[in-house]
Amino acid sequence: MERIDEFLRKHHITEIEAIIPDMAGTARGKIIPRSKFESGEACACRKP
Q1: Are 44 and 38 in contact (CB under 8 A)?
Q2: Inter-residue contact 32 to 19 (CB < 8 Å)
Q3: For 4-42, what is each residue's pLDDT tens digit?
Q4: 18: Cα within 13 Å, side-chain hemisphere
Q5: Taken in order 23, 4, 17, 12, is the CA torsion positive or negative?
Q6: Cα–Cα distance measured from residue 39 to residue 34, given in angstroms and rounded to the nearest whole number
Q7: What's the pLDDT tens digit per position in 32-42?
Q8: What is the 3-state secondary structure (H, E, C) of the chain?
Q9: For residue 37, which of 10, 14, 6, 3 has the smallest C-alpha distance?
Q10: How is the chain split into domains, by residue range?
């Protein structure tokens, strides 16, 4: 993960564009701020 963080800083990347499936499996676009991506908050899932 350190290499990814270094790459993002070096290239001044502030947002990550991702394709995330919704509950029905349909791909949806999502823009994630770099800070959330680096901290892992972007991958948190809500559970019923």
Answers
A1: no
A2: no
A3: 889 999 999 999 998 888 889 999 998 989 888 888 776
A4: 14
A5: positive
A6: 9
A7: 898 888 887 76
A8: CHHHHHHHHHCCCCEEEEEEECCCCCEEEEEEEHHHHHHCHHHCCCCC
A9: 14
A10: 2-43
